[in-house]
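The following record pairs a protein chain with its ligand, calcium ion.
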Amino acid sequence: MRRFVLYLIIIGASLLIVGSMLQSPNPPWQTINEGGPTHAVFLPLILYDNGSSQTPTRTPTPTPTQTATSTPTNTSTSTPTNTPTNTPTNTPTSTPTNTPTNTPTNTPTSTPTNTPTNTPTNTPTSTPTNTPTNTPTNTPTSTPTSCTITQLISDGSFEAGSPNPHWQVASNKSSAILDDSAIPQPNPTHTGTWKAWLGGDNLAQESLWQSFTVGSNASSLQVSFWWQVNTTEPSPLINDSLDIQIADATGVLLQSIYTLYDGDTNSTWVQQTIPISPTYAGQTLRIVFVANTDSSNPTSFFIDDVSVCACQ
Ligand SMILES: [Ca+2]
Ligand SMILES: [Ca+2]
C-alpha cells in the first residue's frame, strides 16, 4: 500500500513538473532544465530511490522481534514439563509391583515342601530297623573271645600217675582211684594211659579233687571232662552216682554242677562241658568228684582230661 501511494506521489509530481515546463519558464527549475527533460524525469526516480532506501529500515524491526520472542517461550516451556512427568511415574510403579510378588511366592513354596518330606521319612525307617538287629547279636558273642582262656587245672589227664602230686583221692575201699589198667574196653582212657576210676564196688564212698585259684578279673568259668559209665545194674537208673562239685578251699560244698548215674551207661568216651556261675573270681576252690554206690550191682565211673578254664 505504501509503495502504491508513493507511486502516485511520484507520478503526480512528474506531471506537475512536466506541466510547468510546458506552460511557463520557471527560473528555479532552470538548473534542472539545463540538463533537458531527461533530468526532470529522473528527479522523481531519485526521490523514489531515496524512499525505497528508507523501506528496509522499518520492515526488519517488527518482524524478528515478535517471532523470536513468542516461539521459544512456548515450545521450551510446555514440552519438557509434560513428558518427563507422566512417563516415569507410571512405568516404574506398575512393573516392579507385579513381577516380584508372584515369582518368589510360588517357586520356593512348592520346591522345599516336597523334597524334605519324602526323603527323611523313608531313610530312617529302614536303616535303624536292620542295623540294631544284626549288631547286638554278633557283638556279645565275639567279646568273650578277646580275653585269655586260662587253664586252672594241672595234669587233667592224670598222666603223672599215682600217687599224683596234683590230685587228692579218698576211698573207703582203699582204692587207688588213679588207674592205668586196660579197663574199660575197648578204650581204657580218653588220652594217655591214665584215668580216674571211681566206684566199681558196692557201698563205695570215694572222691577225687584238686584245688585251683580263679583270677580276680575272671569274666567266666567253665568245667569240662570226659567220662564213661559201666554198670552191672539190671535196671540202670539212679542206684549209683558220681557227683561233680565245686567246693571251697576247705572242701565245703558250694554247688553240685553235674551228676552221672548208672543209668548213663556208655561204652564210649563222652565230653561234658559245664559253665560255672558265679565265676568265683579271686577265690581258691576245689573241683571234686564224689562217687556213691549202693549195696548191689556195682557201677564204675571213669574220668579223663579234666579242665577248669577261666576267661580272664
Ligand atoms: Ca589220661
Ligand atoms: Ca549199685
